Amino acid sequence: MNKWSINLLTLSISIIPGLSIGSGITIAHNAVVPTTKIPVAAQIEGINQSPPCSQKECAGKIPGDANNVNKDITASRPIAAGNYYSRGSNSQLSIPQNISLAEINRDGKSDFIQYADNKIFVSKTDFNKTGLMHTYLRNPIKRVITGDFHRDNYDQVCAITTANELVCYGTSTDNKELWWWFTQSNFIADGEDSIVGDFDGDGRDDILVYPRSGGKFRLYSLKEDHFFRLMENFDEGNLQGLARNNLQIRAADVDGNGRDDLVIINPQGQVLLYGSTYHNGRNTFWWAFTTNQIVGSNEQVTVARIDNNTTDDLVMHNKDTGATRFFKIEYANGSLPAMENVATGQINQDRRSLLFWGHMHDHNGETGAVNRDDAMVYLLDSNMFARSDARWDNNALQLTYWWAYTQHSPNNHAGWTAMQKKPLLFLKCKFADINAEPETNQFYRNLNNANNDYWRDISYGAWNLYDSKLVDEWQRMSITNAAWRRLPSRWERADYCARAYTGSKDGYSGIVTLVNGEGDAGNHGYVLLTPDSSNLTFMSHEVGHTFGWGHSFDDTGRIHEPDWPSQPGEYYDHWDIMSAMDVATFGYQPINGRAAGPEMNAPLRKAFIPQHRIRRFTLSELEGREPVKLDIAALNKPEANGYLEIRLGHSEQDYYSIEYRVKSGWDQGISKDTVLVHHVVNGKSMLIAQGGTERLPGSSHTFDLNPGVSGLRFRLNVDSFASEGYTATVHLSLEGSLVY
């Protein structure tokens, strides 16, 4: 996810054959592709899509580069470790729970990709499902397509959205984020399949579109730095006479030449091979052979490298019985030759299962491991993966598969808050006696867009503020600054600006008003900003009030603003945006280094956290038990494998909340990674300061559950913070006995 003001440019081009271009195609400068070929017709499109630098200045910059320094993005891209080869996605081989396997973080191993609504999560395929990165789109996702479309030695991710767009991402240079690459109109209908492979041998994956209900095959490729285009020199060749209905189509490099061919299984269970070739200036497919009926009706057919060479093989897995068979993709008297030199070994054979393949384990120079895929059996009844790695049996002197783990599959596919539009109206007003414009229009555009990004991230992508309207023109108020200051309420001061705007105010979730002089700022129905308070921390805090949140507290009883007066502990949760008068911030470059952050604490964020990502303990559940070990995911890293919140207490109205915060994103202004504990009573969130607010590795803390009644408390031991994956490991226990 790239929050740091990604620059959008609009490309003025003619219609591409095979694409239905709507409002245009957009591109980004990013870490995925060289950016030396910048469209000459770049222009600004809308207030939220304006680049903060000129076309020439933007070229080659990493999105959000705080120092605004040109960088050679291509040269800085590390090459994947190991013997990487891409196996692109195939919509006919969908893994349940919206999961795909692809190599995303450039380590030469396959990763889990999972989507839910408008969210994409990436994690490793190790036992811990170590979290890697995530991103949020502006529209729900219908399908994810992966492949090495740019010849970068790792897979890029493209999502088809409900807006009929194809939105593509690459991995950031530090391998920690998905960076937006480009967006174009979608060219794959809901009733069509997408088979990814390098069908023209140029080292880049292409997308073959199979129309299940009839029509021609179409081939799309990415030949430059952005955008898939219909391959005009593609010809169906011998595919023309093939019946279109109910085909299983697989991409496979049969010759080991880096160019994928097509293996097709027809409804009769026959295997057909079509070799990809270049003939008379056309990329096409020539029929090679057709077998007898050899595929059972309940068999899932996949392609993998089984026998440690650079040619692909065919695997048949019985979905009902769990039996697996290996074959070479060669013609043998009406069949395919069974592979006799490789044992299925410990590949899971449970009934009701599916089989998928990836490159997942460290080879360490082991015989027969480099050019082989590892097996991932998906158990349909339990939603678990049984992974078996390609290994060498030194006793049998044979290639085989050894069981690595059986583990629950990633479960981020459901449970998230449904997407909602929350547009704001942002108005700027001048006093009758002040003409100064404190900042440029671009500054306020960046501030508005940063606020949109902030609430997208706080809500885990659920809230879409991108239809917010920022009115560039300053509205003239009839009141002087001095008279405005004398108005009896903040509501009247904010309303003065709102009434100066004669356009429609309907359909917005709130109104943000900005005046060009000082005197008052805050929220009383409308958000009210002044030049000095025009920063993201203050704006997001006040917008939080518009959305219904009150202030947050700590338990010290300190008075922050005695002249107001503020309540005891108010504004002292330094890690929460609703304590904005005293929080940890950082300088956000798109708004001239003004304050931004932090995130929102878990108790206030509870409406956005899926129930299965919250671990609730009643007191009786912990009584008499040994300390319970728990992994907590960083609150702003939902891809991490752990609970986003731990709760312990008497009820939903009176409980303790434990969360983990890491110094990144909107939290990059906090001093260090830390575990925090809050006490929530009747919806009021109080940060526990007893023993120090920051709970660090090696520390142990106790908390009284019944203040004034000795002997009943819980203990929190903070064990460690993971070096990767964004999790904290803690132990939780109850001390004392409950009275029944």
Automatic annotation (TrEMBL):
Q: Which UniProt keywords apply?
A: Signal
What's a single GO MF annotation on this record? Answer: metallopeptidase activity
Q: Which residues form a coiled coil?
A: none
Indicate whether Signal appears among the record's keywords.
yes
| Entries under Pfam families matching the protein | FG-GAP_3
Taxonomy, superkingdom? Bacteria
Q: Which Gene3D superfamilies match?
A: Collagenase (Catalytic Domain), Integrin alpha, N-terminal
Classification via PANTHER family? PROPROTEIN CONVERTASE P
Q: What is this protein called?
A: FG-GAP-like repeat-containing protein
> Which species is the source of this protein?
Candidatus Thiothrix putei
